[in-house]
Design a protein that fits this description.
By secondary structure, this protein is an alpha+beta fold. Helices cover about 25% and strands about 40% of the residues. The chain is built from six helices and twelve strands. The strands form four sheets. A four-stranded antiparallel sheet has the order 4-5-1-8. A four-stranded antiparallel sheet has the order 10-11-9-12. The longest helix has 22 residues.
Length: about 230
């Protein structure tokens, strides 16, 4: 069990999904690259392989940030600036807050199941992709994806320094979509999935590859109902 601070901020502007990398770059440029938690790159060692605690998203086509744990404290380096003007794809945007949700949640393995959707989930690396395409039945593919999703949740747990002491269970209820998207010029398989899990996960959390860039965003089903 772990107490986790979360901060979700949605700005009053428009942002298409393909513009998320530019939005991310604009925020990083604003705060300075010396603030490593904003971009996970160390000038000497290159990419830092750890779960991102500051994540950039387009939620309802609005630029959004999800901050977790240390990321909640770190994001004040942006909000403490004199202005929040950023340049996204060469266009100046004066960001204003549309919605702000700050919570202190209990992350734990519970006895009950929670239901989520996950969109544009990049579940497969090169090795797992080869395994996936060689599977003949949908059941086998779902079993593999459930294992990978469990691994993504455990990576999130490690990133927030939560020691998981009970088995995490994941059940994919519906494989809604499978599509090819291009990320950094490379074609990747992205999945849209409905699943249940015995871990309570923050809304808009990113799981899987490129979670900080708006991929693998989960939505709690109560949030989906509220927006219908």
């Amino acid at each position: 069990m772990k107490k986790l601070k979360t901060l979700f901020v949605q700005f009053d502007d428009t942002l298409a999904a393909w513009e998320i990398p530019s939005f991310r770059g604009a925020v990083i440029e604003k705060v300075g690259r010396e603030n490593v938690l904003f971009h996970q790159h160390n000038g000497k060692e290159g990419f830092i392989y750890q779960y991102p605690v500051i994540q950039y998203k387009s939620v309802q086509q609005k630029p959004s940030l999800l901050c977790l744990g240390d990321g909640v404290d770190e994001i004040h380096k942006f909000f403490g600036l004199r202005n929040w003007d950023v340049h996204i794809n060469g266009v100046k945007h004066a960001l204003k807050i549309h919605r702000l949700d700050m919570n202190n949640i209990t992350v734990n393995v519970w006895e009950k199941q929670f239901k989520y959707s996950i969109q544009n989930w990049l579940a497969l690396n090169e090795v797992n992709y080869q395994k996936y395409v060689q599977l003949n039945s949908l059941k086998e593919k779902v079993t593999l994806l459930e294992r990978l999703l469990t691994g993504n949740i455990l990576s999130f747990a490690k990133g927030i320094e939560w020691r998981v002491e009970k088995p995490v269970t994941v059940a994919i209820q519906e494989l809604k979509g499978e599509k090819i998207i291009r990320y950094k010029g490379v074609p990747l398989v992205a999945f849209d999935v409905i699943f249940s899990c015995n871990v309570f996960l923050p809304n808009y959390l990113g799981l899987g590859k490129s979670a900080s860039h708006g991929f693998g965003v989960i939505r709690q089903f109560r949030e989906l109902r509220n927006q219908d």
